[in-house]
Every structure is written in structure tokens, then in C-alpha cells.
TrEMBL record:
EC identifiers of the protein: 3.1.3.16
PROSITE patterns in alphabetical order: SER_THR_PHOSPHATASE
Protein name: Serine/threonine-protein phosphatase
Organism: Cyanidiococcus yangmingshanensis
Upper classification of the organism: Eukaryota, Rhodophyta, Bangiophyceae, Cyanidiales, Cyanidiaceae
Cofactor requirements of the protein: Mn(2+)
InterPro entries: Calcineurin-like_PHP (IPR004843), Metallo-depent_PP-like (IPR029052), PPP_phosphatase (IPR051134), Ser/Thr-sp_prot-phosphatase (IPR006186)
Coiled-coil region list: none
Regions of compositional bias (Polar residues) in chain numbering: 11-21
Chemical reaction(s) catalysed: O-phospho-L-threonyl-[protein] + H2O = L-threonyl-[protein] + phosphate
Amino acid sequence: MRDAEPEITTRAATRGSQSAAHENGLVGAPACTADQALVAAPPQQVLRRIVVCGDTHGQFFDLANIFKLNGLPSAENPYLFNGDFVDRGSWSVEVITTLLAFLVHDPRCMHLVRGNHESRNMNKIYGFEGEVRHKYSEHVFELFEELFQTLPLGYLIEGQSKKRALVVHGGLFSRDGVKLDALLRLDRFVEPPSAGLLSELLWSDPQKENGWGMSKRGVGVSFGPDVTKRFLDDNQLTLLIRSHEMKDDGYEVEADGRLITIFSAPNYCDQMGNRGAYVRLKPDMEPEIVPFDAVEHPTDVRPMMYASVGGGLFGLA
């Protein structure tokens, strides 16, 4: 199987316009295997060095570039993709099926975290539902939605000398005292609610000021560096890695180095001119951040091509 791995990237990347794999192959046994591989209770533990990537948002050619820059996923070169694989970019099907193909090939090489866009409500507005219906069918869309509800809500990465990092998509909570055990007890087999721990985990953002603030998104909260440090200390954590926000350089480091935002969709939606980035996390929990630029892609398929009318570009990122 090792000789076949590069085809997952190369064959999909050479399509240009939007042909797709046959539906029978997409919904057969491999999809069931992927679902079974993802049902363990989150946060999951990963006891090795790992590469953490942020939002990819259907930008398939930039995903392929990550693998070109850092190597294909393998047991020796594992990846964690921190949610928002789909929506906005118009190769969302290619992104999520590529990630699932690696996971099915070897679950040690690929780990996936649920983002706020792995939900039915977001997919109806921001393009994934329209894309799947266009390329496949309503049946396949329903299978994806079922799969999204099995995704872990976070990963706990154990390092050397009792150092630990938590990876979640959005951020922290509207109150102190939340323990990792509370996250393990969350029912994730649902459409995310508008409030509560699950919603905050997927939607919250850091702010520069201490304390809490209203979320600019209308969902989740804004939390300060003091909130981050208390949460990490209370849970014996060294580092929090999250995504969910575009950054000009592809990343931002806050809370005295204990909070990293990572965003892996460069030139977001072909408009923003930002870089992307990923994090190589070593066993000593020392992060090595690698920025990268956008690559060329076919121009006959524009971002938001499958989005609902009035969905907007950044209304609910």
C-alpha cells in the first residue's frame, strides 16, 4: 500500500474541473471503517510527535501542498487536522475524502477533530451540502453528516516529562473550573447547540484582554489570556492549540506562548492574501511553526460556488 499513497494526492489534484470518484466506492466498506475508527471518546491521546494543521476549508490544492512540504501522512509522520475541512472552498469533498483515505489506510497516521463547520446547519449555508449534492447525492450528504457527529472534539497529546497539549477547534469556556473529564462526558453525536460546553468548544475565540467578552460571532465566548492560563494549569496542560480564525501569517501565539492559533488555508477563499501554517509538535511539546503560501489551482471553480444565496463569506467563520 505504501506505493499507492502518492496517488491519493496526485490523481485528485490533476482533475482540474470537478469530476469525482464513483459514489459506490465512496460509500462502501472504507467509509464504515473510518466511522469505526473515530468513535472513541474524546479527547483522544496521541503519544508521539505530530503535525497539527488548522482549517483547510475545501482548499484541496493547498492541502496537497502541505503533504508536499512536510511529507505524506504515515505512522512515522502523523497528522492531526483540527476541524473545518469543508465549506467555502469548492473542493471540500476532495479534502475530506483524502483525509479519510489516509485514516482508513492507517489510523496511526491521521487524526481528525470536529470543527464548527462539521455540522448540518453550516453545511447548508456555506457550500458543502450543495457540493455533495452536485457531485454525489443527498444520501452521501447524510452519510457525511452522520460521520461528522462521530468526530472527536479534541485530542490530548502526551509528551515527555508530563508535558501535555490539548488540541480543540475553537476555544475555551464561559466559566472557570471545566475539567477534561467534563469534555469526555459531552454527547457529541448531535448537531451542535447554540450554547453550552460543546458550542463553546467549537466556536470560542481568544481575546487580548483578561476575562471574558461577548463573541463577535454571536456563538461561543471570547476568553482572555488569564482564562487560558487558569484552564491549562487546572488541567495540568502545557499548551492549547486551536484554529477557527484566519491569521495573516497563518498563526498567532498568545498567552505567553501557551496558546497557538493555527490556520492552514492560505489566501483564504482566493481573497484574503494570508499565509497558511502548520505546527510540528515534538515530544517535549516545543512547537515548530511552519508558514507556507498558497499554490495555484484551477480557476474555473470559484470559492463559495456551491453556497446558499446570501450565505456570505465571513458571517459565521
